[in-house]
Amino acid sequence: MKVNIAEFIISAVGPDQYPDDALPEVALAGRSNVGKSSLINRMINRKNLARTSSTPGKTQHMNYYRINEDSMYFVDFPGYGYAKVSKTQRATWGKMVEKYLSERDTLKLVLLIVDLRHPPTSNDKMMFDWLKHYDLPMCVVATKADKIPKTRWQKHIKIMKQELGVLPGDNFIPFSSEIGLGKEELWGLIDGYVLSSKDETPDIEDAEIDAIEPQQEESTEA
User: How far is CA 16 from CA 29, 161, 176, in A?
Assistant: First the structure.
């Protein structure tokens, strides 16, 4: 996709604030400071449309970014796993994300963002299992590949896939916001889902995203 225009639209706290123009949506889920904002900025060729923060857990709403006015939205979820966020706030975020994933007809793809440098956290595994269980369209995007020597990429990719339970045929893309690795491949994947006919969203009951537990995170996203 050629990005001509990208703009921040709204930080939504519930369905009544979500855009109603029926454009396809691609959601980004991942732990606090895993690099979701940096990924968005790289994908749209902007430095700071999606603002990065040195304060984990700062994103507290569903941030909508519209691409090309009439193409699609990136939807940035609140990051999970930040220990200083209250249990009540984590539960609120969990319910908001759960409701969005289970009811949003315009959702086309979920990008699960993980840090390629480290094995997946328990929260990463829980989110992966949740998305797989309900058969939601998903791609695991392993960021920060530039922080690892190229000779060790395959080792880290193998560990990430094994511990998450990624199967042959599942979408998995190594990515770097610094050097642009994976950008074109990810856009190609997104285009396929955005342009495809709308799939029926599964009926989800008794989901437990709010059960994702906190953990200490790194202090910077880059």
Answer: 21, 37, 34
CA-based nearest residue to 1, from 184, 204, 215: 184
β-pair partners for 6: 67
Q: CA–CA separation, 94 vs 206, rounded Å?
A: 12
Burial label for 185, CB within 10 Å (0-12, 13-18, 19+), is middle
Which pTM does this prediction carry? Answer: 0.84
Alpha carbons 67 and 209: distance in angstroms, whole number? 28
d(CA 194, CA 201): 15
Q: Tokens for 94, please give them.
A: 């969990």
pLDDT tens digits along 146-159 = 999 999 999 999 99
The candidate with the shortest Cα–Cα distance to 35, out of 43, 11, 149, is 43
Give Cα separations from 54 to 32, 34, 120 (angstroms): 10, 11, 21
Q: What value does the CA radius of gyration of the chain take, rounded to a whole number of Å?
A: 16
